[in-house]
Amino acid sequence: MAEVTPRAGHPPSSWSDIPWDLAGLVLRLLPAYADRARFAAVCPQWRATARQLALPPPLPLLALPDGTFYSLPYGKPFRFPGFGCAGFKSAACGSWLIFPRDDGCYLVDPFAHATVALPPLSRVRLRPPNAVAKFVDHGNGTRIDYPYTTWMHIKDQADVPTLNKLILCSPNLVAAFVGNGRTSQILMCQPGASSWSVRAYEECKMFEDMSFYQGKLYAITVDENLLVVNISQDPSTGDPQVSRVGQVIKGDPWYPVFYANKTTDEKKLYLVESHGTLLMVRRKVWCILLEDGTVMALPGQNEFEVFQADLEHSRWVNVTTLGDDQVIFLGRRCSRAVSASQYGMSGDQIFFLDDVMENALDYFFDGESTSVGVYDMRTSEISSPLPMVWMHEMIHATWLFPRD
Ligand SMILES: *[C@@H]1O[C@H](CO)[C@@H](O)[C@H](O)[C@H]1NC(C)=O
Ligand SMILES: *[C@@H]1O[C@H](CO)[C@@H](O)[C@H](O)[C@H]1NC(C)=O
Ligand SMILES: *[C@@H]1O[C@H](CO)[C@@H](O)[C@H](O)[C@H]1NC(C)=O
Ligand SMILES: *[C@@H]1O[C@H](CO)[C@@H](O)[C@H](O)[C@H]1NC(C)=O
Questions:
Q1: Which of 184, 226, 304, 316 to pair with 278, CA 20 to 30 A apart?
Q2: Residue limits of the KIB1-4 beta-propeller domain (predicted)?
Q3: How is the chain split into domains, by residue range?
């Protein structure tokens, strides 16, 4: 070691003289994406080193719609060199940001400088293609109204529904759940296609989250039912389409209650894969009923319960730990579990955002107190270990995971 430690007054003639294996050891200790980016910017040799090493993925970035990013664990804004990211609308799961465009939207991966074009949400191909109305016509003069809401109802109410979540499941498959108010439906398309596809008469659900887990698309509804979405190919165009939505776990409906002290516990559900299992995180956000009848989240007052999907027995199983090595980053747009030890962090923690699902605002966050919180599964305590520089914008903030 002594040989490679530069003596005072005798620095190595160039950074690139530092042996690459030593540089690699240093790099391994830097969990922040910002550090990795700076490391790679030192010289071509270091960039090559960074590429060659099988490093654990860096910590996620927190992305704000004004184009500011925070590279965890730092509280200082990070800018992508030579890359304007302001104006993204939201984020898709993983490394993608969603930008609006006149005739649709496109995804941008600021890490790899890759883009993917998507059709506009106003262009949705119906299945069956001749779906025209909100009733079944038996052809004998009897028309029966659908007893539930379908895409045809949503379409009637708003030309362009709100995008709640978008997942790039594979290079050929993009799934989104979009809605109007609390009702939502799943759309599918192939990147670059001219339209999305939807099952016109499928019952709309109140989806809370969606996850691509072990090659299948799962969605969870507000009453904690876990659904699996079967996907097939349109025989004529080859485009992906939903062939069937089936229930795999029946949940328990759960309704918020207003207590005598005017508080209520509103619920948010998230699906996240951890250690090869599919987890449902139930987050209770304590809220208070204000004089004017609106409901406001009480700053920092959150509770978490975690359940594992037991697909074999079709049930949710209560779990009290994520495991010593797991940390979950929870967000409306994207949630992920990562291994904590590789970053020297302590495990069994949930990082969460005061974010919202745009079209289902049951309560609001006070912009002055929105934040990133960390819930410790072992102590049930919440802390704010990160600098509180993220107020105001947090509601539309999102985690961005550098491409693995
Ligand atoms: C029309 O057809 C439907 C479905 O076959 C049947 O349920 C209904 O009774 C029929 N109505 C009349 C008026 O025949
Ligand atoms: C849907 O997927 C399930 C689980 O993979 C499978 O058992 C079922 O046969 C599929 N149904 C259709 C209609 O594809
Ligand atoms: C309000 O009442 C509920 C139910 O008794 C309790 O759990 C909660 O802690 C109370 N909240 C406040 C802010 O007093
Ligand atoms: C989950 O298990 C823990 C420990 O056994 C218990 O305290 C908690 O109430 C359970 N939660 C649910 C929702 O069943």
A1: 184
A2: 70-376
A3: 15-52
How far does the centroid of ligand 2 lie from the alpha carbon of residue 389, in Å?
47
Axis crossing angle, helix 44-52 with helix 33-41, rounded to the nearest 10: 140
| Residue (of 164, 165, 308) closest to 249 by Cα position | 308
Whether a cis peptide bond, with omega within 30° of 0, leads into 256 is: no
Q: Are 73 and 43 in contact (CB under 8 A)?
A: no
Q: How many residues does the chain have?
A: 404
Question: Ligand 1 pocket check: which of 135, 136, 137, 140 to mutate, most ligand atoms within 8 Å of Cβ?
Answer: 140
In contact, 269 and 209? CB cutoff 8 Å: yes
* pLDDT tens-digit series, residues 337-346: 999 888 888 8
**Beta strands at 124-127 and 196-199: parallel, antiparallel or unpaired:** parallel
The ligand placed nearest to the CA atom of residue 231 is: 2
C-alpha to C-alpha distance for 207 and 165, rounded to whole angstroms: 10
Token digits of residue 372: 């990133």
SS3 339: strand
DSSP state of 10: B
- Ligand 1 atom closest to residue 141's alpha carbon, by position in its atom list: 13
What's this model's pTM, rounded to 2 decimal places? 0.87
State in Å: Cα 204 to ligand 1 middle.
26
